[in-house]
Amino acid sequence: MLRSMYSGISGMNNMQTKLDTIGNNIANVNTFGFKKGRTTFKDMVSQQIAGASGPGGGLGGTNPRQVGLGSQLATIDTIHTQGSLQNTNRELDLGISGDGYFRLGEGDNTFYSRAGNFYLDSEGNIVNSDGLYLLDDAGDIINIPPNSQSFSISQTGNVNVIDDEGVLDTVATISLAFFANPEGLQKEGSNLYQVSANSGEPVVTTPGMDGTGTLVAGTLEMSNVDLSAEFTEMIVAQRAFQANTRIITTSDEILQELVNLKR
């Protein structure tokens, strides 16, 4: 079989993966805190036809002659750039302006998220849309006493409450975590990340400390997906897929000519 046919197949497979990533980005264009993905590729091993030779014997050197065998997937990156903050004027909508991730607890498991749409449960605990608890700087659940008149959250994560007697009190401080390599975090779905072998261990701090961003109450971080860029990449992937199918078609025509030599 012709090597070009298998090169075309590898290119088609890679473009399908690229389109899968683009489709996921577009599907999550309105997902709070979503970070877009990006695919990169690299060439496969090249078959050696002839090696290089150095100058000598009255002749100059020659370069190696190699035939590439196609392309392969290199990485699927998660791009953790800041998304724009959308104003909602809701006390429990929290946007992070800068680096850092909310810490969410489910039993003994801790997850991380940029999505800041939080709610109160029947006991006054702050939870996300799936019921995971928002954790403070001590790793405890944050509770708003049911008899509170009102509450507010500061830029530095302080949860301030006015009790039934009108006394202002800080009941907890929201914690943030940051990582040496945030692109190494593993996606768990539902806007959640978990620590991986290459993300580094989380450094737990409070908003505005140790290089983390501050909280902006009444806002939500939108997805960092750029639709115009995604549609452009979709066109590029589609044309590249078509070009690789043409390689297979042309290779097939050559094979057909070889088969027709004997009649």
Automatic annotation (TrEMBL):
Ranges of residues in domain Flagellar hook protein FlgE/F/G-like D1: 96-161
Compartment list: Bacterial flagellum basal body
Tagged with keyword Cell cycle: no
Keywords: Bacterial flagellum, Cell projection, Cilium, Flagellum
GO cellular component terms, semicolon-separated: bacterial-type flagellum basal body; bacterial-type flagellum hook; cytosol
Domain Flagellar basal-body/hook protein C-terminal: from-to ranges: 217-261
Keyword field contains Phosphoprotein: no
InterPro entries: Flag_bb_rod_N, Flagellar_basal_body_rod_CS, Flagellar_FlgE/F/G, Flg_bb/hook_C_dom, FlgE/F/G-like, LlgE_F_G-like_D1
One Pfam family linked to the record: LlgE_F_G_D1
Main location class: other
Residue intervals of the Flagellar basal body rod protein N-terminal domain: 5-35
GO biological process, one term: bacterial-type flagellum-dependent swarming motility
Family: Belongs to the flagella basal body rod proteins family.
Annotated function: A flexible structure which links the flagellar filament to the drive apparatus in the basal body.
UniProt protein name: Flagellar hook protein FlgE
Organism encoding this protein: Halalkalibacter okhensis
Gene designation: flgG
